[in-house]
Design brief:
about 375 residues; alpha+beta; Alpha-Beta Plaits; 2 domains; four-stranded mixed sheet; binds iron/sulfur cluster
Length: about 375
């Protein structure tokens, strides 16, 4: 085992391979507060990449309701149980990661779902924690709550799938950090399926190989955001790249949200994979649940997000989500607008901080037509 630095847990940790960061790391921010669970992202991915034989059960992108939704069944609670109680201390994590907790003969602590665990991808949808009594939803955090968690492969800096593969079939591209399975090398041992804590590698029983989210790399190579991003109805997603914290650039929107404002957090950072999909936590869920899921920064992130309406920079940047199909490499606020640009500064999109409101007359005199149903 090598020693590598994982900034999300604030310490060095054991990993199967030496530290080797890509030249640029694909990353994304998902704003949970805006997801409406329409599953358009799920279908956009399904129809693009997993409509073939043997892929019927696969959802490279899925959206589940927390706390009772899971795909596959109990993916997170089962692993947390296996890992046992661990603690964060002053923002760092001295507890065991999945690599450090691996049993003898294994490279990663994990478990392999059974076929039926994938059979109910919408289990727990819209199920609330607690009863809904009169007025209970008027206070934040809500006494009764649930939220939608959209999930794709995290294209981790320290992928458990890659570490576990005995054939060396899984690789991380040096140019963008996207994690792929070499279909020629894979022999279908499914060590990756067992090792990925997020359960985002899938076994195809017809080809006998493992498959996973490819971050729509043919699009990303052309500066375009992924299918599940550009089709997102709630405009919750922003794709780009992330720098390590010591070289964060505030003009990079992902760096700004993750490193500068610390409003977007990784999913289960304590597992040790340094995942690269970051979530703006929901403002209405209990702090203890968010702490377990997103680490000790969750409460501060919620406070920052709640203040965003009066914060022209953060509020403006959040307005760029879902506004262009191109990858926004740089951003800046320019007066009453926020501008997204290519890395070379070429403007891609300009969004007003405050959307103008136009009120039409009920009856349009010029065209002699009613503009509302009941003039
Ligand atoms: S989320 Fe899972 S499949 Fe994706 S890179 Fe990380 S360990 Fe591998
Ligand atoms: S398309 Fe967007 S809003 Fe709809 S479920 Fe997916 S992430 Fe949520």
């Amino acid at each position: 085992m090598a020693r590598v630095f994982n900034w999300q847990i604030g310490r060095q940790m054991a990993y199967w391979y030496p530290e080797s960061r890509p030249r640029r790391q694909f990353a994304a921010v998902f704003d949970i507060n805006k997801c409406i669970a329409c599953q358009t992202c799920t279908l956009a991915c399904k129809t693009t990449w997993t409509s073939g034989k043997g892929q019927e059960y696969m959802l490279w992108n899925n959206v589940e309701s927390k706390p009772y939704g899971f795909y596959p069944l109990r993916w997170d609670v089962k692993l947390l149980q296996l890992l046992g109680a661990q603690e964060w201390r002053e923002g760092a994590y001295p507890g065991r990661t999945l690599f450090e907790a691996a049993p003898a003969g294994k490279r990663v602590l994990g478990w392999r779902p059974e076929e039926r665990d994938y059979a109910y991808p919408n289990v727990g949808e819209d199920d609330c924690d607690g009863r809904i009594d009169g007025g209970a939803s008027l206070h934040v955090p809500h006494a009764s709550w649930f939220f939608y968690l959209a999930r794709i492969c995290n294209h981790c800096t320290y992928p458990a799938c890659l570490a576990a593969c005995p054939r060396g079939s899984i690789y991380k591209r040096p140019e963008d950090g996207i994690v792929l399975v070499d279909q020629e090398r894979c022999r279908g041992y499914r060590e990756c399926v067992q090792a990925c804590p997020y359960k985002k590698v899938f076994f195809n029983p017809l080809t006998g190989t493992s498959e996973k989210c490819i971050a729509c790399y043919p699009k990303f190579e052309q500066g375009l955001q992924q299918q599940c991003f550009v089709n997102c109805i709630g405009k919750i997603r922003l794709a780009g790249s992330i720098s390590p914290p010591e070289s964060a650039r505030p003009e990079n929107p992902i760096d700004y949200l993750v490193h500068v404002r610390k409003v977007a957090l990784p999913l289960f950072p304590q597992l040790g994979l340094e995942p690269n999909v970051y979530y703006i936590p929901p403002i209405h869920a209990p702090a203890s649940f968010l702490h377990q899921m997103f680490g000790p920064g969750a409460e501060a992130a919620v406070r920052t997000y709640r203040a965003a309406a009066a914060d022209q920079d953060l509020g403006g940047l959040l307005g760029l989500f879902g506004c262009t199909e191109r990858v926004v490499a740089r951003w800046q606020r320019a007066g009453d607008s926020v501008v997204g640009a290519e890395e070379n500064g070429t403007e891609i999109v300009r969004v007003p901080l405050c959307e103008p409101v136009f009120v039409r007359d009920a009856f349009d005199q010029e065209h002699q037509i009613a503009r509302v149903n009941c003039p």
